[in-house]
Amino acid sequence: MTIEFVDIAWDHRxxxxxxxxxxxxxxxxxxxxxxxxxLGSLAMWKDFPQQLCAALGCRxxxxxxxxxxxxxxxxxxxxxxxxxxxxxxxEVLPALLHALDIDTAHDKPWLFxxxxxxxxxxLYAARFPGHI
Length: 132
Hints:
There is one protein chain. By secondary structure, the chain is α/β, with parallel strands linked by helices. Helix content is about 30%, strand content about 25%. It contains 3 helices and 5 strands, in the order βββαβαβα. Helix 2 (about 85-100) crosses helix 3. The longest helix has 16 residues, at about 85-100.
């Protein structure tokens, strides 16, 4: 699997997001989006997303949130407020899906989150119930 990067506009700047597709060619298969833990990244998932997608016959998208992995690092003076998970769910994830041409009205992703990623998945689902 190849690591790719895409730029999104977030927090009044361009942010580069590290991501990896699993079975991207299965256009009509369900899409699972993997959201990592608070100290994790794309790499921390290891081969779990590939194994799960292969077992279920689905596609997957694994990514590192801004400030994690090889995505745009957090500026040393940047302070994340208490709503940082809300911002990831309501701003970053939708911007990423849009940048990757995922039409959430028709191609509703299944969200799989661990720890902070689970909270972000729930916050996204609550804000965009028709998109999952």
